[in-house]
Amino acid sequence: MTDLEALDLDFVQLGGTGLQTSEFQFGTWRFGKETEQGNVEIGEDRAHDLLDGYAAAGGRYIDAADVYGGGKAEEWIGDWLSERDRERYTVASKIYWQIREGDPNSGGTNRKNIRHRVDEILERLGTDYVDVLYIHRWDDQTSAREMMKTLNRLVEEGKIHYLGASTLRPNAWKVAKANEIARAEGWEPFTLLQPRYNLVDREIEGDYLEMARSEDLAVCPWSPLGQGFLTGKYDREDGLTGESRASESSRWEENYLTEENFDLHDELDAVADEVDASPAQTALAWLSHREGVTAPIVGARTLDQLEENLAAAEIDLSDEQVDRLTEAKGGPYAGL
């Protein structure tokens, strides 16, 4: 296992923003998250340890959302940042989901909700600005013009630096339309995208990635390990090695525990052996090699997992190995 301090992550260009970002971004969606049994996946002390480890490896991009841990993730990040040079870190958050029961205006991207939520984000983070604000989902109840005008005003006020859109694969055309409106009005457009993308989940290949390239948008994928499927802990016989399959939803099993995906995993295992890496590292290395991908978002429950994931930055795959992994899934975009 590579020592975190020895990794020294590189910086990559964040689309057309002019910013440089770490080649792997750090996702905090498990910070403060409660399981069905009422346990917290990652508490504050471990959250700070993971942030320490990421920073030690040269990581500088921290991704959050105002609903992660009910706001705890941002609070813990803010506490951690308070003892460091804020300017050395790029911090992203997201808004969308309804946060007050019975109050439909506490969700979506209407002007009232956006302005209120951004102020709360800044308070929890203990900072004057957030580097990137994503809309977590598309709000069909709010016009693109109202949303973009409101977001632009917050950019002008210095509360937000750049705008992003998360998990909008079927709505790529809506992002392009919103950007067309913004540019016509001289407003800040979306400059980052955050879709799901990995060796198994390939739905953004095609129009979505082509739109991102044409708009010069950064693409920062989440779920780069297919919700754990690409880590190697699943097999054909038992599904989930060493754990009960009852812990996984039937929908998850239907989407991931398929013969096609296990065939893909066989090829992943073969390439991993060739480059002396784990399946997870090889899957992350493949994603980093994909044209149009800027910087995958990785998470971890432990420092060991973080070390393993970030060490993928040191893995070189040949063009032939990238092609084999790309084509192992099949489908209309396998050769892209």
- Rounded mean pLDDT score: 91
Q: Which CATH-level-2 architecture?
A: Alpha-Beta Barrel
Q: Which structural class is indicated by helix and strand composition?
A: alpha/beta
Helix-residue proportion: 25-40%
Query: What portion of residues belong to β-strands?
Result: 5-15%
Q: Tell me the number of helical segments per DSSP (H or I, 4 or more residues long).
A: 11
Oligomer: single chain
- What about the largest sheet? 8 strands, parallel
Question: Overview of this structure, please?
Answer:
With 336 residues, the protein is an alpha/beta fold. It has a single domain, classed as TIM Barrel. It is built from 11 helices and 12 strands. An 8-stranded parallel beta sheet has the order 9-8-7-6-5-4-3-12. A two-stranded antiparallel sheet has the order 1-2. The longest helix has 16 residues. The protein is globular.
Topology overview:
Blueprint: E1 11-13, E2 20-22, E3 25-27, H1 44-56, E4 61-63, H2 72-81, E5 90-95, H3 111-125, E6 130-135, H4 144-156, E7 160-166, H5 172-185, E8 190-194, H6 207-215, E9 218-219, E10 234-235, E11 239-240, H7 250-256, H8 259-274, H9 279-289, E12 297-298, H10 303-310, H11 319-328
Parallel strand pairs: 3-4, 3-12, 4-5, 5-6, 6-7, 7-8, 8-9
Antiparallel strand pairs: 1-2, 10-11
Helix pairs in contact: 1-2, 1-10, 2-3, 4-5, 8-9, 8-11
